[in-house]
Amino acid sequence: MLLMLGAIMTCSSYLMFVYNPLQLIIKKVATLAPGSIFLNLWSEPPYNVFIDAYIFNVTNPEEFLQKKEKLKVNQMGPYVYQEILLNKNATFNDNGTMTFQPRRYLRFRRDLSIGDPEEDRVMSPNIPLLGITASLQKSSGFTNWMVASISKMTGAQSFINLTVSEYLWGYDDRLVTLANKAIPSWINFDRFGILDRLMALDNATNIVTLNLHPELGLASPMLREDERSAVYHIHRWNGSPGLKHWGYVETDDNQTTPKNNSRCNMVEGAFEGTIFPPNLKENSTVKLYRRAFCRPVPFVYKNRSFSKDGFEGITFEVDKLFLARPEENPENSCYCVDGECLPKGLGSLAPCYYDIPIAISQPHFLNSDPLLLEQIEGMQPNESEHDSSFILHPELGIPLEADLRIQINLNVGQTKQNSRTEPFNGMVLPLFWLRLRVGEIPSFVYTLITLLFYVLPVIQEILKYLLGLGGLALMSGTALFLLFFSRDEPNGRLSFRGHYSPIPVIPMNSPYFQPEIRILK
């Protein structure tokens, strides 16, 4: 029995050296599968995700309208909202994919905010007036004249004074109400709030399909090899691998891919932001997609670093060319609306937001065309405060830290026949910017990482050697025992084999003990 136990211990040690059972455990834990720990973690992420809203407040509206001064703004905020994400109705499909519906909810956090949004007020350009008028630049003169007449009749002003809550979540605007009643297929809301519109798109009925088994070969050939082999990438968004509002054309399996379809208007291969592939390579580029941003946002590998909780991770930062013109970044070619490309640092969101010329940028026009900064006073771009990055755990592929920042602007262009919008012609107006950040790592995630990557590896190393040495010792001891001892059959007692004595005994009558007698003469 001792010999068998020793053999089992030695074999176990050998198998631990060869197969590394801890990696098998990690692979089992870090897999989206029915009933898995990861599925429960992903379905209701325990992370504290916060959205900090910073609003640009106009300080000189009268002087600007009188063309005495450039537009001046100062930054108000943060007004902090906690985002609660639920991934509902997860269904595992036979083709190796999983389908689900994400839902997001925001809850105001007064304890983390600079003020009360119900009381604090902001002076803002009249976004509905400017947005609707700017969207009609290519319409007839009569249409523009009609809108100008209606805006005058409704008493619309160039600037409006609102509470922060009204600005973000909605207020009654007569122009919006008329547009909603006249053209509900275009303006499908009767109150306007800028953050409300972003969240409305994010929380529309979105059905997302993730590729859990890329080895089955479902990925599009337009993806790079590393993108096709990446687990958890988006396979379909609302049934499509591409973004129709950027020109993607659906095809059947036996049809030739249309020339308009490209990597630019693909959503397949991007990630929805809560889970990433494990063991990403150092030259990797990952794309994040939220429907509110209208397009995937690329992040490139930066370095290996440590999170504020002390865990080693991989840092990704937003690609500096993510909002570059197609001359610098050919993958941005499909984002030029009607053949017109925005200046460097701006990305159009118009196809996602009622064709109103909304544009994204980095906060304070970081990494943008210098002309954008010259139009407005008060913009202070700073890379440490306005850039975006996140840290992933290398083996689990879950976020350790995240700091994503995006700014929403209104690209006014050249409005027509409206004296209330004419002073803004040619300007890109910064409206507000959002910082999406992840708070401290949840205690469950902290414990899981500590156990899997700091405690169990030490225990495994100790066990490997203890089992190996202990097993060899047991087998050697058992072999020696069987070699030198036997059991007496009559009495059942153990006895030593042979007559070996560790101390030699010499009889006294031995000739060696006979004294030598000498006769002295």
TrEMBL record:
Q: Where in the cell is it found?
A: Cell membrane
* TM stretches of this protein: 441-459, 465-485
Which Pfam families does this UniProt record tie to the protein?
A: CD36
Q: What is its main location?
A: membrane
Task: Write the record's keywords in alphabetical order, separated by commas.
Answer: Cell membrane, Glycoprotein, Membrane, Receptor, Transmembrane, Transmembrane helix
Mind naming one GO cellular-component term on file for this protein? cytoplasm
The GO terms this record gives for MF are: scavenger receptor activity
This chain's protein is named Scavenger receptor class B, member 1-like
